[in-house]
Specification:
Layout lengths: L1 H27 L13 H7 L13 H4 L23 E2 L6 E2 L1 H4 L4 E5 L16 E6 L5 E7 L6 E2 L7 H8 L4 E4 L4 H10 L6 E4 L8 E2 L9 E4 H11 L20
Parallel strand pairs: 3-7, 7-8
Antiparallel strand pairs: 1-2, 3-5, 4-5, 6-10, 9-10
């Protein structure tokens, strides 16, 4: 009896095992499995149900892996902008290249002492032209003409002489002095309002001058370039193109 009971049980297990294996192989191969009938056992039906699908990410293509390429070029180096060359013209008195505004500055002629007590004088290095001539007794006087440069101190300022006025008249300069000879003072009274020169007498315009304490009078009268430029504007000696007979050629080659 024992053998009879065991054999049918093994047969049932073999049938069920074969059925479950068939269902499992069908699911793996992609075949469809029929749904279990309503009366079937839940445990038996579970062996043949379709396993849940697991989403699988597609393999990335070579184009998907490509990174955007950065444009790699030479480093941007700021290039210096050329500075425009200034517009320069020849200064009418010296021939040196200056700006047009400088070339138009009204000339200022200043009488300068040359006695030993007046030395060293101030202003020589800034003068565009220096006239020198003897006055009474063979004592020389200078007339410094300032146009291109504006000097610092200028002096000692001395008195006017007629022949210096004639030279200053070539430029219609502002003529700076302290007193003068009778002939010079008469000429300045009559033609010192721009006809020949612009009369800048210290006797009339003392506020543009000063006396220094380190020298004795009359060798201690001084002014400055800024004061004289301001006085020129007060007198009406305006900046304007200068007509001057001198002509400047190119520098000669060094031989």
């Amino acid at each position: 009896m024992v053998r009879r009971a065991v054999i049918p049980a093994l047969a049932v297990l073999a049938v069920l095992g074969g059925l479950g294996m068939g269902m499992l192989l069908g699911a793996v191969s992609g075949g469809s499995t029929a749904s279990p009938s309503p009366g079937s056992s839940g445990n038996v039906a579970g062996l043949g149900s379709t396993p849940p699908s697991v989403p699988v990410s597609p393999e990335p293509s070579s184009s998907d892996n490509a990174q955007p390429s950065a444009s790699i070029g030479p480093s941007a180096v700021p290039q210096p902008r050329p500075t425009p060359s200034p517009n320069l013209v020849a200064d009418p008195l010296t021939g040196r290249l200056v700006t047009p505004a400088v070339a138009r500055r009204h000339p200022i002629a200043v009488m300068i002492d040359d006695l030993s007590a007046a030395r060293p004088q101030s202003g020589f290095n800034s003068a565009s032209i220096v006239w020198q001539a003897p006055a009474e007794g063979g004592i020389p006087r200078y007339m410094m003409i300032f146009q291109e440069n504006v000097p610092g101190d200028v002096g000692p300022v001395r008195s006017a002489r007629y022949y210096f006025i004639a030279w200053a008249a070539e430029l219609r300069a502002m003529y700076v002095h302290s007193g003068g000879s009778p002939q010079a003072l008469q000429t300045l009274r009559e033609q010192g309002n721009g006809q020949l020169v612009w009369n800048a007498d210290e006797f009339r315009w003392g506020g543009s001058f000063r006396r220094i304490s380190s020298r004795f009078s009359p060798h201690n009268l001084y002014s400055t370039g800024d004061q004289l430029r301001a006085l020129a504007r007060t007198l009406g000696a305006k900046d304007a193109p200068i007509t001057w007979p001198w002509r400047f050629a190119r520098d000669a080659a060094l031989g």
